[in-house]
Amino acid sequence: MENMKKYLAEFVGTCVLVLVACGVAVSPAGYVGTALAFGLVIVAMAYSIGNVSGCHINPAVSFAMFLSKKMSGKECIGYCISQVLGALLGSILLGLFVGGYENLGGNVAQLTLTIAYGEVGSLFVALIVEIALTFIFLVAILGVTSKTENKAVTGLVIGGSLTLVHLLGIGLTGTSVNPARSFAPALLQAFTGNTAALAQIWIFIIGPLAGAALAAFFYKFLEGKKEQTPAPQSPAEPEEKE
Predict the structure, then answer these.
(1) Which residues have a Cβ under 8 Å from the Cβ of 94 and sit 6 or more positions away?
(2) Could you give the 3-state DSSP secondary structure of residue 38?
(3) Handedness of CA 183, 204, 50, 227 (dihedral sign)
(4) Pick from 132, 129, 139, 152: nearest CA to 200
(5) pTM value?
(6) Is the distance from CB of 166 to CB of 140 less than 8 angstroms?
């Protein structure tokens, strides 16, 4: 029963993320407005469902938590399924709201990359972009959630970090860092004949998961080194003698 509550929270949270943030993305809000929308949704959800599920609403986050041994494999799978289903519902609702499913904010390598690197090269650069942005985002999450005293500001830090990576990435890949957020709009867009996002979906699944794995191992390394290094003795404190 406890896990079902967590899965429901993840379902609703991801639905809200896709509906509201992708909704802003397909409106004439611009880069800053879109980046703020994604960040603010995370802030709102973190302080509403965070105490239930941790407010991952992103398979990459759940994957990093699994690799960090903060959740079981079974629970991670349950989270990811709930997130994808929530993203699908959010995409369906968004299509109803905007009057069509041709453009729901699916991710593709942007024209900036295509001009600079060509059709094929842009795809691999987009993959690197998604790995790097997810790494930055997940390091921030792992860092701020590592100490209980950060609880009051956790939502603000995570939402701010998501806003930050969106400001850089929107003009390059549209910024995913979230496989569920990319897959659901791409799938529904494909039913209308707009298959560009679905054809590139591998970038927005592999990239975020790879970035999440790198962040988990990197943070584990940092924590390990911290544990192995003894705290420096204050010059004012004499060394204890047996």
Answers:
(1) 18, 19, 22, 23, 26, 104, 105, 185
(2) helix
(3) positive
(4) 129
(5) 0.91
(6) no
d(CA 66, CA 75): 9
Residue 18 structure tokens = 């896709």
Instruction: State the first-to-last Cα distance of the chain, in angstroms, to the nearest integer.
Output: 54
Q: Would you give per-residue pLDDT tens digits along the chain (242 residues)?
A: 789 999 999 999 999 999 999 999 999 989 999 999 999 999 999 999 999 999 999 999 999 999 999 999 999 999 999 999 999 999 999 999 999 999 999 999 999 999 999 999 999 999 999 999 999 999 999 999 999 899 999 999 999 999 999 999 999 999 999 999 999 999 999 999 999 999 999 999 999 999 999 999 999 999 885 544 444 444 454 444 43
How far, CA to CA in Å, does 86 sit from each of 57, 156, 183? 9, 23, 11
Regarding the domain with residue range 2-220, which homologous superfamily does it belong to in the CATH classification? Glycerol uptake facilitator protein. (1.20.1080.10)
Backbone angles phi, psi at 114, to 5 degrees: -65, -40
Of 71, 234, 218, 208, nearest in space to 143 by CA: 218
Domain boundaries, the chain: 2-220
Which pair of structure tokens corresponds to residue 200?
């590139």
* Distance from C-alpha of 162 to C-alpha of 175, rounded to nearest angstrom: 10
CA 165 remoteness from chain centre: 10
